[in-house]
From TrEMBL, chain A:
<keyword id="KW-0812">Transmembrane</keyword>
<keyword id="KW-0256">Endoplasmic reticulum</keyword>
<feature type="transmembrane region" description="Helical">
    <location>
        <begin position="264"/>
        <end position="282"/>
    </location>
</feature>
<feature type="transmembrane region" description="Helical">
    <location>
        <begin position="182"/>
        <end position="200"/>
    </location>
</feature>
<feature type="transmembrane region" description="Helical">
    <location>
        <begin position="294"/>
        <end position="314"/>
    </location>
</feature>
<dbReference type="Pfam" id="PF04756">
    <property type="entry name" value="OST3_OST6"/>
</dbReference>
<keyword id="KW-0732">Signal</keyword>
<comment type="function">
    <text>Subunit of the oligosaccharyl transferase (OST) complex that catalyzes the initial transfer of a defined glycan (Glc(3)Man(9)GlcNAc(2) in eukaryotes) from the lipid carrier dolichol-pyrophosphate to an asparagine residue within an Asn-X-Ser/Thr consensus motif in nascent polypeptide chains, the first step in protein N-glycosylation. N-glycosylation occurs cotranslationally and the complex associates with the Sec61 complex at the channel-forming translocon complex that mediates protein translocation across the endoplasmic reticulum (ER). All subunits are required for a maximal enzyme activity.</text>
</comment>
<protein>
    <recommendedName>
        <fullName>Magnesium transporter protein 1</fullName>
    </recommendedName>
</protein>
From TrEMBL, chain B:
<dbReference type="Pfam" id="PF21436">
    <property type="entry name" value="STT3-PglB_core"/>
</dbReference>
<keyword id="KW-1133">Transmembrane helix</keyword>
<keyword id="KW-0325">Glycoprotein</keyword>
<feature type="transmembrane region" description="Helical">
    <location>
        <begin position="247"/>
        <end position="267"/>
    </location>
</feature>
<keyword id="KW-0464">Manganese</keyword>
<feature type="transmembrane region" description="Helical">
    <location>
        <begin position="365"/>
        <end position="384"/>
    </location>
</feature>
<feature type="transmembrane region" description="Helical">
    <location>
        <begin position="391"/>
        <end position="409"/>
    </location>
</feature>
<keyword id="KW-0479">Metal-binding</keyword>
<keyword id="KW-0256">Endoplasmic reticulum</keyword>
Length: 330, 761
């Protein structure tokens, strides 16, 4: 409804003289920014408003985000960027309630198809900065295009820097303090404290169980020494489709690995470690001599075969490695 | 191993005491000799030379120390690095290494053995590795017994994980730091066991030595408090721990603050707060413990507990407030990136760019530790079995260091000692069981006296372990000789293989000085590639003493050490902006670079180029890091994206982007490179790419020197043009004149214009 009113206002403005028109046009949009029903300070544009705001002559700078927020378009980056853009707009509005020569607007594809077509844009989001016109020469009217960096941890700050560099307006970002996060953190701590107080009688035996801590420590040690942190940091694939249709479990190359590969190695380490523990702790406690002999031989064999297997995988990774153990020779 | 055989051969331990002691000393000496000998591959193959990068600075500083004395060294302001800023070297280094080799140098002179400081520096690391083996022996002997200690010493002596940082010539802080680490830990265990302030004080003394030697001292600063904290949580607080920790912390912290580089960090940064917090906690616990003994009232205890909790909460909140308000510095980036593993890549590219800060893939663990890596969990498990206070230390150490080693390749170094200790405990337990010559007799219904005695003993030890898994049943022993022989034989094979593996790894992977490269000729003979020294000596002999050399920071220490010329940036990466400046100069076009180079009064620019030889560690491969670091400071002027083709590839051939082709680094690397090959055949052997026939043109610099294999290329930055033209105009004029060679002089100008067009085209 408000939009219609504004359209009417815009239309009525056309009758005013050019200079006045320029000033009034700016004032209208500044008011629009102040009263925006979207995020504070950001003007929700459509085809007509866009044409209006960008038509020369301009004595103000305009930053327009061309986006496609609708689920249908599946634009992840658009949706990720929108809160940051709103933050930029509201920060500017907070510092400059009268817009002070910088207008910030959003044009969504659903209401701005014609503009997208006219400007030949096939991707979103696109961000453009329309500098003020002073002479009206064609080159001056060329908008500047912003390059999105998907890896930027704080896109609003990067954009603010870019605007500050490309216009006379210094934009500062005011990130609102995240009270929700703080409260949920405090509540979480209190909750955990209460829960542990209540559950203490039941948890205490487990907490002081030596076996539990031994298991946890060993799992941690095995995970870390089998290269789990590498998987976590480098985000390696679990397995990779091989060339002739098969699946390759082992990555080629010495400083490379797959997820499954590290799990195999961790299991091999675990079994090897367990066999040595069995040999030194369990075996001498078997009372029957015949049983003991068989068990010792069995564990010894497990040790040999798995170590040999480990050596053969390692040789696969490092072709020039000269050593191997008998049963499995890679 | 040998001593345990002995121990079983001689029945009465008392009568063989002296024999066994002699044997232990002999074995330890042999281990020390072996650990020194296995680190000498590089000296024998190449020569007595300092390796890699950082050692060159340490070597230079040591030379300065023995030349100018200790106090000058302490106040050393180095104006020949980080030009024009300079570096307060005396206050920004860990002096322990240099002071150690300086002391050895003075001692040898005193006994009339004037040894060159270079040889002391080269051989310091192998020498200290012998001491590390000894410290590991002492440490492990505290954990189990001396036979496990000897095994651990032998493992430590030859484990590649430690050799990688301590071969002859690798004159780096780690060379002495691992010895100090193990010895400090030994003293700490001793102090905690005996509750003695003397051992605590000694521990603090060696902690001080460690702080003076290596930034990795923070590992000790956090591990000992963690050990104490875990013990308190386990309800094992005792007066012994109180005395040991308090004396260590108070003395050690005060001592560590005497190192200028450390200064007030122990009370101002988050890395050290754990130690301080535990110091406070242990005082509280001691106070409560004391009062509990005095006042047995139950209500009073409840009140007391409330007070303790309150104080703990208040001090924690206080700590957080101080951190938030900035009185206590938050975790520094290098340490923070250990926890938040994605942090460095986004925020501090200079840390992420270093190859030894990359995460560790599993083959590296196996490569550096071989079969120790799977004995390691077994050893940790054995620690859980007895779980004395010192075993808790091993467990804490094992978990923490295996995490750190997984996150950063470099920290494999701190993992190696605990792996050796734990694995030695496991192997030694197995050998103890299977090398027992006497076999138990088969259990009959009515057991003979000996067996019942054994059973009783075992039952007693079983109750000690609190019914721990796999140790509930009484210990009997191994019946059959065959099973003993089989297990001992297979473990002997593994041990022999470990020795072979270590020797092979040391010889093949860790003994290259990286200053001198070796390759094999087709006939199998060794060919030495000595381009680095060729270039550095060229600089030393052919440039004025005050010439300034710009290069990427990797080569700063080497230029300072070998060429003795002033550098802009070096491996002490204290000023990110200055490094980014050099990065920008390398990544920008000549016009921009020339401005930067002139402003920094640079005379020569040095680049490493491996394209001809296939040397992959060259500057083009490092180039993206230069771009990234420069982009971090000048995001609008240098952009990483512009170095990638539209398909997102990093190319140096025809498809290379214009920004890439115009960058100073590209031009310096490929200038005249195509002329080495027949037309159309120019290839870069590192990146396997065909190069354009028309190589890059340079205007503001000129080639000064290129080494035999093109690895190092040195360019001279041109002085301002004599006629006040810019260098592009001057070059155009020159080439134009050549073009218009036979024409009269007045045609020169027109020719110049023509030439300019040609150049720019």
């Amino acid at each position: 409804m408000r939009l219609l009113n504004l359209l009417a206002a815009c239309a009525s403005l056309l009758s005013v003289t050019a200079a006045q028109k320029n000033a009034n046009k700016y004032q209208t949009f500044a008011d629009l920014a102040a009263s925006s029903k979207g995020s504070k300070g950001s003007i929700i544009l459509n085809d007509q408003l866009f044409a209006e705001v960008t038509v020369p002559p301009r004595n103000y700078t305009t930053v327009v985000l061309f986006t496609a927020l609708d689920q249908r378009f599946g634009c992840v980056l658009c949706r990720e960027f929108q809160p940051e853009f709103d933050l930029l707009a509201s920060s500017w509005h907070q510092d400059h309630p009268k817009s002070d020569g910088l207008l910030i607007g959003v044009l969504d594809f659903t209401v701005g198809k014609a503009t997208f077509q006219r400007l030949g844009m096939s991707t979103a989001p696109i961000l453009m900065l329309f500098p003020p016109t002073t002479t009206g020469s064609a080159s001056e009217q060329m908008p500047l295009k912003y390059d999105f960096n998907p890896n930027d941890p704080q896109p609003a700050d990067a954009l603010a820097r870019w605007i500050s560099q490309n216009s006379k307006h210094a934009v500062a970002i005011h990130r609102p303090f995240n009270y929700v996060k703080l409260f949920s953190f405090v509540a979480g701590i209190i909750g955990v404290a209460t829960l542990s107080r209540l559950a203490y009688p039941y948890l205490a035996p487990a907490l002081y169980s030596r076996n539990l801590w031994a298991a946890l420590s060993l799992v941690a040690v095995l995970l870390f020494t089998s290269g789990h942190m590498f998987n976590h940091i480098r985000k390696v694939p679990y397995v990779v489709q091989g060339r002739n249709g098969g699946v390759s479990y082992i990555a080629g190359g010495f400083s490379n690995q797959f997820g499954l590969e590290t799990q195999i190695v961790a299991v091999v380490y675990a079994v090897l470690a367990f066999s040595s523990i069995a040999l030194c702790l369990k075996m001498p406690r078997i009372e029957n001599s015949g049983k003991q002999k068989i068990a010792v031989m069995a564990w010894n064999l497990v040790l040999l075969v798995l170590f040999s297997f480990l050596m053969s995988i390692f040789k696969m990774k490092n072709g020039s490695y000269p050593f191997f153990l008998p049963p499995l020779i890679a | 191993m040998a001593s345990s055989i002995k121990a079983t051969l001689f029945k009465d331990p008392a009568s063989t005491e002296s024999t066994r002691n002699i044997l232990k000393v002999v074995i330890l000496l042999v281990i020390a000799a072996v650990s020194v000998a296995s680190r000498l591959f590089s000296v024998i193959r190449f020569e007595s030379i300092i390796h890699e990068f950082d050692p060159w600075f340490n070597f230079r500083a040591s030379k300065y120390l023995v030349k100018n004395g200790f106090f000058d060294f302490w106040n050393w302001f180095d104006d020949r690095t980080w030009y024009p800023l300079g570096r307060v070297t005396g206050g920004t280094l860990y002096p322990g290494l240099m002071v150690t080799s300086g002391a050895i140098w003075h001692f040898l002179r005193m006994i009339s053995l004037p040894v060159d400081i270079r040889n002391i520096c080269v051989l310091l690391a192998p020498g200290f590795s012998g001491l590390t083996a000894f410290a590991t022996y002492l440490f492990t002997a505290e954990m189990k017994d001396s036979s496990a200690g000897l095994l651990a010493a032998a493992f430590m002596g030859i484990a590649p994980g430690y050799i990688s940082r301590s071969v002859a010539g690798s004159y780096d802080n780690e060379a002495i730091a691992i010895f100090l680490l193990m010895f400090t830990f030994y003293l700490w265990i001793k102090a905690a066991k005996l509750g003695s302030a003397m051992w605590g004080g000694l521990c603090a003394l060696f902690y001080f030595y460690m702080v003076s030697a290596w930034g990795g001292y923070v590992f000790i600063t956090n591990l000992i408090p963690l050990h104490v904290f875990v013990l308190i949580l386990m309800g094992r607080y005792s007066g012994r721990i109180y005395v040991a920790y308090s004396s260590w912390y108070a003395l050690g912290t005060l001592a560590s603050m005497q190192i200028p580089f450390v200064g007030f960090l122990p009370i101002r940064t988050s890395e050290h707060m754990a130690a301080l917090g535990i110091f406070g906690l242990i005082q509280l616990v001691a106070f409560v413990d004391y009062l509990r003994g005095q006042v047995p009232s139950k209500h009073f205890n409840t009140l007391l507990r409330a007070i303790v909790v309150l104080i703990a909460v208040v001090s924690f909140v206080g700590l957080v407030t101080l951190t938030v308000t900035g009185v206590i510095a938050p975790w520094s980036g290098r340490f923070y990136s250990l926890w938040d593993t994605g942090y460095a890549k986004i925020h501090i590219p200079i840390i992420a760019s270093v190859s030894e800060h990359q995460p560790t893939a599993w083959p590296s663990f196996f490569f550096d530790l071989n079969f120790l890596i799977w004995l390691f969990p077994a050893g940790v498990y054995l620690c859980f079995r007895q779980l004395r206070d010192e075993h808790v230390f091993i467990i804490v150490y094992a978990v923490m260091s295996s995490y750190f080693a997984g996150v950063m390749v470099r920290l494999m170094l701190t993992l190696t000692p605990v792996v050796c200790v734990a694995a030695a405990m496991a192997v030694s337990s197995i050998l103890d069981t299977y090398l027992e010559i006497e076999s138990p007799e088969e259990a009959a219904e009515e057991s003979d006296s000996k067996k019942s005695k054994k059973t009783k003993e075992a039952a007693a030890s079983g109750s000690n372990t609190g019914g721990f898994l796999s140790s509930k049943a009484p210990f009997i022993g191994i019946y059959s000789f065959t099973s003993k022989a089989a297990v001992v034989a297979s473990f002997s094979v593994y041990l022999v293989m470990f020795v072979l593996h270590c020797t092979w790894v040391t010889s093949n992977a860790y003994s290259s000085p990286s200053v001198v490269l070796a390759s094999r000729m087709p006939d199998g003979s060794q060919h030495i590639i000595d381009d680095f020294r060729e270039a550095y000596y060229w600089l030393r002999k052919n440039t004025p003493y005050d010439a300034k050399i710009a290069s990427w920071w990797d080569y700063g220490y080497q230029i300072g050490g070998m060429a003795d010329r002033t550098t802009l940036v070096d491996n002490n990466t204290w000023n990110n902006t200055h490094i980014a400046t050099v990065g920008k100069a390398m990544a920008s076009s000549e016009e921009v670079s020339y401005e930067i180079l002139r402003k920094h009064e640079v005379d020569y620019v040095l680049v490493i180029f491996g394209g001809l030889l296939g040397y992959s560690g060259d500057d083009i491969n490092k180039f993206l890091w230069m771009v990234r670091i420069a982009e971090g400071v000048w995001p609008s002027e240098v952009q990483e994206r512009k170095f990638f083709t539209s398909r997102g590839e990093y190319k140096i051939d025809h498809d290379a982007t214009d920004t890439m082709k115009n960058s100073l680094m590209y031009k310096m690397s490929y200038y005249k490179y195509a002329s080495m090959f027949p037309p159309g055949q120019a290839t870069d052997r590192v990146r396997g790419a065909k190069l354009p026939q028309e190589g890059p043109q340079i205007h503001t610099i000129e080639e000064a020197f290129t080494t035999e294999n093109w690895i190092v290329r040195i360019y001279k930055v041109k002085d301002l043009d004599q006629f006040g033209r810019d260098h592009f105009a001057a070059m155009a004029f020159e080439s134009g004149k050549k073009r218009a060679g036979k024409k009269a002089g007045m045609a020169g100008r027109a020719g110049g214009k023509k030439g300019r067009r040609l150049v720019r085209a």
